[in-house]
Structure to design on (191 residues):
């Protein structure tokens, strides 16, 4: 009678990462219980046997080896199928991403809006200089469009020592108190 002892460290231990580790463990236990080959012959040497028991042991050993080979083939086939499935999924994902990029609406290069024309002409004869922000009226006087103050050409201004100044373009003398006098007529200009 053969007793079943725990699996010793000399026997192959089932891999916990293998998908059929339970089958491997069961095969190892059964192999230990009925060893064949040289170890089986040594173990069974204490009980003299017949030639038929030897062939039975050899048959069970060959069955165990065939089972191992079959499991290895199944595992490699399973790994091949899994790798093929992963490759197919990757290819499908790549194809879908490429198709999505191909079907994307084309990008339209937009031209930034043009700014205002440098000079805008109005129907009444006045103009607006959009670069320098100066509005020139039909009668010739100009105002700064950002501040609303009259634009005076600094080359046409003569500054007096008392703080007054003469605008030679418009012939207007501006006194230190802000009073404006037309130099041609001598009359006070009321604004």
């Amino acid at each position: 009678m053969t007793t079943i002892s725990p699996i010793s460290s000399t026997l192959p231990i089932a891999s916990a990462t293998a998908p059929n580790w339970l089958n491997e463990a069961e095969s190892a236990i059964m192999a230990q219980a009925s060893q064949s080959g040289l170890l089986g012959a040594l173990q069974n040497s204490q009980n003299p046997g017949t030639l038929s028991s030897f062939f039975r042991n050899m048959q069970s050993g060959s069955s165990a080896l065939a089972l191992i080979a079959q499991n290895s083939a199944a595992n490699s086939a399973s790994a091949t199928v899994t790798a093929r499935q992963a490759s197919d999924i990757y290819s499908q994902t790549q194809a879908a991403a490429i198709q999505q990029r191909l079907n994307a609406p084309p990008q339209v290069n937009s031209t930034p809006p043009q700014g205002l024309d440098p000079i805008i002409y109005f129907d009444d004869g006045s103009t607006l200089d959009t670069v320098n922000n100066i509005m020139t009226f039909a009668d010739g006087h100009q105002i700064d469009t950002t501040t609303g103050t009259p634009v005076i050409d600094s080359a046409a201004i003569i500054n007096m020592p008392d703080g007054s100044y003469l605008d030679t373009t418009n012939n207007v003398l501006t006194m230190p108190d802000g009073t404006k006098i037309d130099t041609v007529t001598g009359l006070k200009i009321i604004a």
User: Anything to note?
Assistant: DSSP finds three helices and nine strands in the chain.
